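Lab meeting notes turned into a lecture example. A postdoc, R.K., suggested we walk through two folding results consecutively so the class can see how the record format repeats. The first protein's sequence and structure tokens come next.
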Amino acid sequence: MRPALSNAKGFNESWSIVHFNESIFSEIGITWDSVEPTGKQIFSESFKKRFYSKCRDCFSENFPEISKDDVASIVLKDPRFCRTFPVWKKTLHDLQYEIKVVIPLRSPIDVMHSLMKRDEIDSASAVLIWYWHIVEILIHTEGMAVSLVSYDQLLDNPSEHMHMSLGIEISDRAASIIDKKLNHSKASQAPNATFLEDEPFHASMMLYENLLNSSSPDSQVISGVKSSYFFNHVLKANLEKKSTSLHKRLIREISILNGLPVRENEKRFKSVNSLDHSISSDSSEILEKRSKNTSKFYKLWNLFKNP
């Protein structure tokens, strides 16, 4: 992708990969700036198979010099991978690549300022975009080789941080490419931080700070995030269509996904700063109109929302 006013040195992303990831988004019904979870279809084997041949074609187009029998070291970069990774994971495994994931960590508040300035997105939506990208890549890469790279530390000392976080040495020339002047959005630009006590800002900052202190994602962080992610997804799905068994569906799904009794999940939800607040407070009115079983379901949601 070519340089832009918001990124003078370019994005180092392939147009064809971006367009392919966008086609996956289109099929699911989301865009890069959607503030809700991607959707369960991204986990479906049949869904991934539908994109298999196109994914291989996209890969071959970007790396035409690599033969079928030659497995080389390559780098793929696109923020959309956070949401489309299951499709790529299947393809790269079939091509016999060993996948190593690098997750850059930038403060959600910095990202918020950047998106507000560049795309005129409101603050809550901007933070939710950050949140779902991080949540989903953590879930999609659980159990894999994952490294976390701090955006701020990389800017401050590229060579040292690359060595500490990834175990690789970079040349002075490579380090010089990183220009701190291109960091246009900093948390220090926010004179009033009282909004951080509200959701979704609080949950996002908690997740960011938990990850920032690790070289790779902690299993407990991922476990808590999975609970929050799937709960929000179930709630979103239930708001979109009528059902006479919303309450039972929610209980069953929580139990299956976490392998724990519902009462144990209830305790977990109370200890995790989940983003069910991202669903507006007037959701009860929507639910009232859509299901006779609303009262039970809403009581359960409210229990998790207000521990």
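The second example is placed directly after the first for contrast:
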Amino acid sequence: MKYRRPCKSGLQTVPFVLVAYLIFLAAPVVLLGIGSFGESWSNTLLPSGFTGRWYLEVANDPSFRRAFVTSLQVVAVTAAINVLAGLPLAYAIHAGARGGVRFAARLVTLMPIAVPELVLAFGFILVFSSDTLPWLGSFWLLAAGHAVLTLPYTVTALVADMDQLGLDEYEHAAATLGASFFDRVRDVTLPLLSPSLLSALLTVAALSIGEFQLSNLVAGFLSRTYPIVLLQAFYGATGFACAATVVLLVLAIAASLASGVAARFAGGRQAEPAA
């Protein structure tokens, strides 16, 4: 069988495509950063002047401060729901479901990712705007919506880590030594999964901070999150809107980087038992 060398022209185009993609991805972020320090920006490629007052105005704006605090509260409640619901659900899928049942359980878990957020939001509006369930616009319904959207990421990550760690073997060894179920969960399951759970929760935080579509339709006036208020900023001064966007971007990037570091640490922890 003859060995066919890869086409050199095709390999040469790969770096150009990669560079073009990175430029396309980074250009809006760079322009937002530049615009946040511009004095004015109107019908030009770059802003004119230099100022830092936009960040001060964002920090002093009561609506943005309230929305920022609300977003952090939603993230905290969403993370708590992911721990309380995601960990038992992932454990049940890993330990109890086999074959077709396991596949069906994971398929149901991933449904919020497959269904568009607008569809979920409209469903929330129909169900929770009735006289029986008049919860539309409440903080807790908003947090529940964020939990529905982010729970699949937590469950998927935890189930994959349970499979990779060989959690069954560790629990079986603990059971043979007389450990009860709760002792195994406390002394075996939680310590092994803590790095993976932390990584999943940081990913949940990054997703929840930037979530807009469902929040914009479900949130009430007093429970508006930061992205909702941010949209209204673009109807005013461009520099103010850019500064407010950079704040949100920094939060999301920080959560994503922390999630990556936690995932790398979890990978190191998983490699130790295997060695």
